[in-house]
Amino acid sequence: MVIVDCGVNSVPRFSNLAMKDSFSAAVLRRPANAIGIEEVHLDALQPSDVLIKLGASGICHTDLEVQRGDLTAPMPIVLGHEGAGTVVEIGSQVRSVSAGDHVVGSWNPSCGTCFYCLRDQPILCERYSLTGSLGQLPDGATRLRAGGRPIHHYGSVASHAEYAILHESSAVRIPAEIPLDHACLLGCAVSTGFCAPLRVAKVSVGSCVAIVGCGAVGLNVVQGARVAGAAEVIAIDIDERRLSLAEELGATRTIHGAEQDPIAEVRRWSQSRGADFVFEAGGSPTTMQLALEVTRPGGDVVLLGKVPLDIPVSFRFGSLFGEKRVVRSSYGGARPQRDFPILARYYLTGQLKIKQLISHHLKLSEIDEGFQTVARGEAIRAVVTFP
């Protein structure tokens, strides 16, 4: 076993680790500041830990919200919760993956035994809800250090780094045939969008679906609605490029929200009633209100987008009339251990397209530029790849 001096105390390293004594990670030390590339160390592997070498990590809009300060997180922190890589080593109690496996990281580890896990709501796992907000792994500790001081893990994954330690419930094995830069998107954008029509709304065959906002999540809603058998899949956005991509991924109609009246157009294609199922993925009070307006009486609205946590959102009360049902979902109803392998099969059979969603490939050293690209709205998905 190699002993590495971390500056304050020495910590035991791993028996099988084919890597340098330290490795590069993108560290955010203060909100609204640039993200720096730093050399960090890992603490010892614990019994339920899985050490992975990252192959790719997607830059999610949620990462940007933390960097801006719209979402609070403990600092310093390694962002990134949409990563895929290869297992290097496992803890003594890990049984679900082995060294050499390809895995996707899930930002929703769950204990399986708390109040919410037993009620089939692992997204609300009490243990994760506590430790995740503190930038810790589920055992209540961190594994990353720089200069002997702790560095926090964002979303229990911290994938904007060359290596990461995940809890076993966060490491989901996938087929090695899937390129890692495609696989990483299963961890957030794909699962949140693709699963929402299937798991949350339970879209029925022959129904009319509308999607408000065609970023990475909304475009995956398009794909999920198509697989669910919707007869009409109507994509609404104000970006021609995104609308064109929505059509390529399965939208039957596209509506340019700045040039057409979305309410009139949705009614035009839904026998004047409005859509049966509407998914909001734009992340603004305006798109949330529009989602309600284009929903038929008795229809379902799923809010996938989000605004800063302290921003009030109000609705025109009349748009709630007609027995409409509104639900908020953070992960599209996905259960990673169950659904990532299913999504992988959809990908391998050609029913789920991911390559088209990747607008930018970046090196880790270019990650701050990648965040700026996301902030300007230029990226569908920017992906950091590791050699």
List the helices and strands and how they pair.
Blueprint: E1 3-5, E2 10-12, E3 23-28, E4 36-42, E5 49-59, H1 61-68, E6 77-78, E7 83-90, E8 102-105, H2 126-133, E9 144-146, E10 149-153, E11 163-167, E12 171-174, H3 180-183, H4 189-200, E13 208-212, H5 216-228, E14 232-237, H6 240-248, E15 253-256, H7 262-268, E16 275-280, H8 285-293, E17 295-303, E18 325-328, H9 336-348, E19 360-362, H10 367-375, E20 382-385
Parallel strand pairs: 6-10, 13-14, 13-16, 14-15, 16-17, 17-18, 19-20
Antiparallel strand pairs: 1-2, 3-4, 3-6, 4-9, 5-7, 5-11, 5-20, 7-8, 8-12, 9-10
Provide an overview of this structure:
Strands 5, 7, 8, 11, 12, 19 and 20 form a seven-stranded mixed sheet that branches. The protein has a six-stranded parallel sheet with strand order 15-14-13-16-17-18, sandwiched between helices. A five-stranded mixed barrel has the order 3-4-9-10-6. By secondary structure, it is of the alpha/beta class. Helix content is 24%, strand content 26%. It has two domains: 3-187 and 354-385, Medium-chain alcohol dehydrogenases, catalytic domain (Quinone Oxidoreductase, Chain A, domain 1, Alpha-Beta Complex); 193-328, NAD(P)-binding Rossmann-like Domain (Rossmann fold, 3-Layer(aba) Sandwich), CATH 3.40.50. Strand 3 (23-28) and strand 4 form a beta hairpin. The two termini are 26 Å apart.
Supply the key terms.
387 residues; alpha/beta; Quinone Oxidoreductase, Chain A, domain 1; Rossmann fold; seven-stranded mixed beta sheet; six-stranded parallel beta sheet; 10 helices
Estimate percent helicity: 10-25%
Considering the protein shown, what is the CATH homologous superfamily of the largest domain?
A: Medium-chain alcohol dehydrogenases, catalytic domain
Q: What structural class should be given to the helix and strand makeup?
A: alpha/beta
CATH architecture of the largest domain: Alpha-Beta Complex
Low-confidence stretches: 1-13
Globular, elongated, flat, extended or rod-shaped: what is the shape? globular
Mean pLDDT: 93
Q: Major sheet: size, sense and barrel closure? A: 7 strands, mixed
- At the first level of CATH, the class of the largest domain is Alpha Beta
Overall number of structural domains: 2
Can you count the beta strands?
A: 20
What's the helix count?
Answer: 10
And the CATH topology of the largest domain? Quinone Oxidoreductase, Chain A, domain 1
Euclidean distance between termini CA atoms? 26 Å
Order of helices and strands: EEEEEHEEEHEEEEHHEHEHEHEHEEHEHE
Fraction of residues in β-strands: 25-35%
Round the Cα radius of gyration to an integer and report it. 21 Å
